[in-house]
């Protein structure tokens, strides 16, 4: 799990600042600090002069910032730059991705809480699982707080924050607007946990977390959709380098779009024939159960075509560069993946589909946990 | 055509600055200037003290900025605030939306160029039309430059820039990547026209311009899609307050998504059964030609259902708050509009469809011209 691509979101270029909040000196300092960390995070060790060139900040500003970051233990000096021949040897500065840790929590499975202690680069160094035993509502909040405390205690470095990938509709402040499966409604989960744990807690929808993880750690591009396929089907959308929230914070509810015209199966949402009724892992397993390999492939390809038909308008409207499937590869990879891609290609213009990639997630089972870490990285260090 | 709503895009709040470009003092000045203009543009006349309160800038900074804007003629003093009882009477400052003008050009019709001189609030004060007479390629660029020069000459105030709504795929720099109908390919239209006319020229796709216009002048929300229905079908998407560009600058190609499963009509794009083959104005006229009112309504409702099926995954994935139809109301309003809304509602979760509005565009025929004005407002004054 490494970081490879440079993030220069289109929204951040050119005009840059949006005219909706003032620029105070402390904002500029925090922004410049993020710039330096962002560069070191994505590009690796760099000299102070190099940081000055790439960020456009003066050398004095860079030196001051690096001094503060050294004192905080967030960066370290790594010896001199190889191959440099003239002048004073330049000392490389690198981000200490092991200096702090993040606790991530994944609530996307309704039978167990999954948790991990992660490095700043999203690698899980300690994974833990706790059975939910049917807990919901306030009981589940209590269990979650105990589980988080246990994970924080098992961290081997100071924890800079806790990220949570939750089911349901979650707003910008980490309030769970609605998550019927766990009986949460209008629950200020981030605030409650912050209060109990004494650490910054950030909460987002689980599929949205997965999209953040693929974007930050999985090499995902600026315009993409991540479909999480498990017990249900969720989606997280990134557009031009920003996570899509939607008018009511409910972006990504693609699993409950009707895709079966007649005789659709009943869905958990109370309606019939939703994408989830054909694409969820249990649905795919039921549909292929007892079939020989050839028959099973035909069934999976057929679901792939249904998925392609559903995604074609989304890909066309947004000109997405990638569609990423996160879930069991034995169900989602060939032939489902190829059938979906062929269907999208056939149903959209070449200008839309020419550069389209439809692939499996890079991060497997850790995708929601890693996304929870990205929430914390972004909020606490300004790195995305 | 008035401005009513406050724009506080979600992306501009909270974190605010994105860590991808540095903050220089001149950026902060330009940003603060935009803040003041943005407030006056959307909220109307305000005292210096009021500007200081709403922007968070110090009174000294606000006074300095207002001084510069007064000298430029962009704002004016408007007498004292009514109803104020204590202390020195506060002088209201208002944006002079008539101090400068914008030239807008609409190339979405393939038989005529439409142009207008517009106020800063997007009102067309002078409209002109020029037959294209089959011109394409370089000839069309020449014609466009002459037309723009004529419009600039007819302006009654200094022109701050020229905005162009063009067919085809247009990138961030105003380069037309591809517009087959007019035989433009990889054409740096904004740069060419800027060079010839000596004024800033900004170019965007016509449907994208329409989306900007509905967002800025038409009361459109932060998350919406505008469908332009004329000879063809285009779309512009706003997500969380930002225009969607897409991975290859081709966002909005919803008109060329396949919607007819079998026996679809041939489309201008060379494929069959695209949304455009059933929803374009000529297609709707052909389909209802010679039918009685009752039969025609059934046909239009059927197209509305097809549109709804196509839009449901887009609305679900993005949690759009509005779908806006720009085009002939006699074709697009009832029963097509209602059928589309009912279909989207039936095919998405209540969390998605509960707040959804599907309505006709507020700006009618001027929508692309007004959007061209928004391009200029944003780029030249930082107002959006």
UniProtKB/TrEMBL annotation, chains A, B:
Alphabetized SUPFAM superfamilies for the sequence: Actin-like ATPase domain (SSF53067), Winged helix' DNA-binding domain (SSF46785)
Residues spanning the membrane: none
Signal sequence annotation: none
Xref: PROSITE patterns: ROK
Protein family per UniProt: Belongs to the ROK (NagC/XylR) family.
UniProt-recorded name of the protein: ROK family transcriptional regulator
Species whose genome carries this gene: Isoptericola sediminis
């Amino acid at each position: 799990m490494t970081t490879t691509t440079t993030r220069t979101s289109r929204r951040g270029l050119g005009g840059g600042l949006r005219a909706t909040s003032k620029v105070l000196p402390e904002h500029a300092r925090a922004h410049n600090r993020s710039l330096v960390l962002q560069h070191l995070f994505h590009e690796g060790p760099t000299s102070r002069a190099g940081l000055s060139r790439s960020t456009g900040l003066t050398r004095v500003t860079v030196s001051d910032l690096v001094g503060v970051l050294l004192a905080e233990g967030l960066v370290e000096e790594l010896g001199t730059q190889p191959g440099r021949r003239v002048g004073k040897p330049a000392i490389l500065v690198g981000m200490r991705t092991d200096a702090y840790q993040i606790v991530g929590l994944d609530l996307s499975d309704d039978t167990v809480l999954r948790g991990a202690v992660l490095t700043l680069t999203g690698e899980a160094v300690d994974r833990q699982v706790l059975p939910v035993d049917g807990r919901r509502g306030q009981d589940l909040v209590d269990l979650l707080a105990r589980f988080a405390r246990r994970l924080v205690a098992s961290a081997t470095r100071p924890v800079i924050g806790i990220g949570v990938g939750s089911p349901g509709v979650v707003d910008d402040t980490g309030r769970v607007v609605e998550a019927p499966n766990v009986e949460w409604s209008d629950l200020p989960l981030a605030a409650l946990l912050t209060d109990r744990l004494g650490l910054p807690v950030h909460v987002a929808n689980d599929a949205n977390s997965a999209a953040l993880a693929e974007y930050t750690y999985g090499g995902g591009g600026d315009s993409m959709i991540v479909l999480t396929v498990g017990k249900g089907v969720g989606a997280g959308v990134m557009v031009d380098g920003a996570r899509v929230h939607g008018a009511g914070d409910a972006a990504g509810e693609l699993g409950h779009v009707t895709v079966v015209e007649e005789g659709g199966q009943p869905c958990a949402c109370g309606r019939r024939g939703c994408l989830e009724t054909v694409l969820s892992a249990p649905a795919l397993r039921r549909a292929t159960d007892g079939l020989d390999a050839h028959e099973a492939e035909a069934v999976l390809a057929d679901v792939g075509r249904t998925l392609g038909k559903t995604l074609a308008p989304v890909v066309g409207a947004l000109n997405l560069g990638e569609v990423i499937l996160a879930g069991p590869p034995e169900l989602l990879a060939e032939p489902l993946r190829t059938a979906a891609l062929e269907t999208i290609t056939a149903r959209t213009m070449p200008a839309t589909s020419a550069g389209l990639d439809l692939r499996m997630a890079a991060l497997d089972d850790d995708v929601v946990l890693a996304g929870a870490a990205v929430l914390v990285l972004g909020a606490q260090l300004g790195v995305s």
